[in-house]
Amino acid sequence: MTVQQQIDAYLGEQAGLETLRFITCGSVDDGKSTLIGRMLYESQMILDDQLSELERMSSKIGTQGEDIDFALLVDGLSAEREQGITIDVAYRYFATDQRKFIVADTPGHEQYTRNMVTGASTADVAVILVDARKGILEQTRRHSFIASMLGIRHVVLAVNKMDLIDFDRAVYEDIVDAYGQLSDQLSFTSVTPIPLSAKCGDNVVNRSTRTSWYQGPTLLGFLGAVDTRKALINHGFRMPVQWVNRPNLDFRGYAGTVLAGAIAPGDELRILPSGETALVDRIILGDTDLETAQADQAVTLTLDREVDISRGDVLVAAKDPCETSDQFEARLVWMAKDSGFHGRSYWLKMGAVTVNATLSEIRHTYNINTFEEIAGRSLELNDISVVKLSVDRPIAFETFEECPPMGSFVLIDRQTHQTVAAGMIEFALRRASNVHRQAVTVNKKARAKLNGHAGRVLWFTGLSGSGKSTIANLLERKLHKQGFCTYILDGDNVRLGLNRDLGFTDADRVENIRRISEVAKLMVDAGLVVMTAFISPFRAERRVAREMFAKNEFIEIFVDTPLEVAEQRDPKGLYRKARQGELPNFTGIDSPYEEPENPEFRLESADSTPDRLAEGLLRELNLQIDE
User: Fold this and answer.
1) For the whole model, what pTM was predicted?
2) Which DSSP string do the residues of 6-35 spell out, in sequence order?
3) Which of 364, 358, 357 minimizes the C-alpha distance to 385?
4) Which residues are catalytic?
5) Is the peptide bond before 273 cis (omega within 30 degrees of 0)?
6) Is the Cα dihedral 469, 475, 480, 484 positive or negative?
7) Which structural domains are found in the chain, ordered by start?
8) Which of 71, 230, 513, 522 is the Cys-Cys partner for 34 at CB 3.0 to 4.6 Å?
9) What backbone torsions phi and psi does residue 32 show, to the nearest 5 degrees?
10) What are the pLDDT digits (tens) for 88-132?
11) What single DSSP character describes residue 236?
């Protein structure tokens, strides 16, 4: 056999191996990076030049004296090497004769919990390290809870640093018993405890002679044998369409990665959410037609007839379809420094589909130490919570427990495009299929014709004392004289009735504006020119309010008044009380106001009277209101 033939044979064997994804997690300095480095070293996956560099760096900044510091193989950031901790998720690839491996070394610090979630989101197995000297810690509980929530069913309890306690069996068994009590509250299928020393190599790849009392597998032996993929392969077929492949008029293919199940030519598919059906004609991979495709394969499918299919639609087995819904209960891991609030809107991205989503309820947040459910009105960095979400159109899904790829999603901030949360669908809210919009005979157009003008919302925003209510009231009098049907929604008046249950926290302010937006929308639909005079301090809520209305129906009016001017006016004495600490969460003092970036009108009230501003606004508005 020639060298080329040997290479081809080896590559062919490697291509046929199954890939196992696993993570290492645990508290700070439990030895996660050292463990991975040791596995790479003993699996002979380190090249000679890498080994030489590792030896050089170990003598320079290593923490193991004259020995090799295997953690340096994984901790690639300079800050990680300087501090001796893991900050970012580090991925490493290696292989044995049994299978290929992708390992994610995740951070131990609580502040990097979101990085741990990223690494765990695609893992099949979690290797949770515990320092034999310290036992079960808070981060052990946190990472175990997250691993369970993210659908990882197989766990290795790696009791590390056994060499530092002289391989004491009693200490090891106490840790195993303590973790058993913890894991009983979680949803793991198996927990495999292994006593090891990452530094010395005991029970990592080769069985240790210093643990004669231990009869279980080595770590690499377990990872090479554990079966994790059968559930998805035996599942019903699921493939989101990532791209409609149309190179010419004679070919239309639907490209994507098979998330679950298997497919063959002649199988019947259902397209969701439309519900149409078709038969599979061909399965194409590159220039080759396949007889079948299964989970994890990226392929292009052609169908026996033309069907309206777009990116984001999901192809499923016709005899075993999944559900569609527009409301869900889900678990969230909050990954942003900015808080999340009930009523705030985001983009929800699941597979290839992106929809508008609103946090319709925050049910509770978990106490990681006790797993207790705690009521809350906001979501903070690293919080793990149960929420209700509503989206603007039905999407195909499965519960995360049944099919993780079809039940996982991320929430994205619509302004910054930052990923703010990772989510797992628990179940659909059946109310979505029972509530339908009622058609009415007298519509918006008919009401506008009767009134002689279309409905509009004039959204006044600005600091307390800027003059919003005064200008809105003067403008309404002028519009009323000209025959317009008008109404003012004033902040104080609404809080005396509809929103009397709300306070002034950020969460309550978000809900306050959500309710006002809904009321204003109904009034515009009725053909009224409605003026809202609210501080409405957050751009995100004003943007969501704008998107509820048709083009030209929403007119943002920023009453631009410097804080010092508003504070000098202080008609209600609110600034004085806020400065004295009597009014917490007061906008402009200890709660932020985010100025509009592109309002339709900017009124500078410091240099003009309210009547002049209202009169000037009326002249400009004539062009937009009169029909």
Assistant:
1) 0.72
2) HHHHHHHHHHTS-EEEEEEEESTTSSHHHH
3) 364
4) 536
5) yes
6) negative
7) 3-228 (3.40.50.300), 233-317 (2.40.30.10), 323-433 (2.40.30.10), 444-625 (3.40.50.300)
8) 71
9) -65, -50
10) 466 778 777 778 888 887 765 566 566 777 777 778 899 999 999
11) P
